[in-house]
Amino acid sequence: MLRARGAAAALLRLAGAGASAQSGAAPPLARAAFTRGFLGKKVNKEAIEKEKARLKEEIGRGYFEDIAEIRKNNGKIAAASKVIIPEVDAVKFPELAVESPDGGALHLPLVVPAPQDQGSEAADGVTPEAGDDVTPDASLVCLSFRASSQKMAESWSSPFLDAFGADKNIHVYEVSFIDSWLLSVNPVKRAFLKVMRKSNNPQRHVVYAFGDHYDFRKKLQIVNLLTGYIYLIDRQGRIRWQGFGSATQEELLSLTASTSILLDGK
């Protein structure tokens, strides 16, 4: 019996738990195992609850409901901005990682760094990637979640570039979302990017966002994935104008006027 107790005590000491066992406290290894298990359960529970909410939302709104909304309103799920959104009312555009067919990668929106943070990441956005000459004074970001809405994006980007193409501080980003897990895997993703359309205009960037985009959509309150979403972003990464679907002449005039105000006030 004594020999068995001695062996048990030796094992506890080897595990670094002899003193804790004598005082009645849980051994360090046991505490570590408990902590990992507790945190793991907590994280898993949060992930499960989040996924349940997501499924409930997506099941509650079906594909045919999206189709009906698009056909009824010609892709206009909401009215476009009539005038520029004031700075005090403007919200930040959520950070989004994108990649281009030429192998480049960046994070949107590009923002000008604060004076004390020159050369480093700004507090309220993402500074330009290395090699970028300048932060755009205004960026038109066109989001397409399905191939059918890419033409909608071009109905905005082409006239925008026609109007402001001479200004080097104007950029357009046509973002296509790729949510297929297979296409998001690195070897397949690289092959996919090689065959995708490219832009010869240095101010027009055709880029792709890979992977799950649910959290990004939630931040922008995007529900219907069959239409296009258009945002005019200023140098601080704020949304100053927004539109939906295909551009109308009246909406293009509003976008042009808002962009001119941004350029005049830079």
From TrEMBL:
The stretch of residues making up the signal peptide is: 1-21
Question: What keywords sit in the KW lines?
Answer: Signal
Question: Looking at the Swiss-Prot or TrEMBL record, what is one Pfam family this protein matches?
Answer: ATP-synt_10
Q: Give the stretches traversing the membrane.
A: none
Matching InterPro entries = ATP10
The protein here is known as Mitochondrial ATPase complex subunit ATP10
Tell me which species this is from: Urochloa decumbens
Q: What is the lineage of its organism?
A: Eukaryota, Viridiplantae, Streptophyta, Embryophyta, Tracheophyta
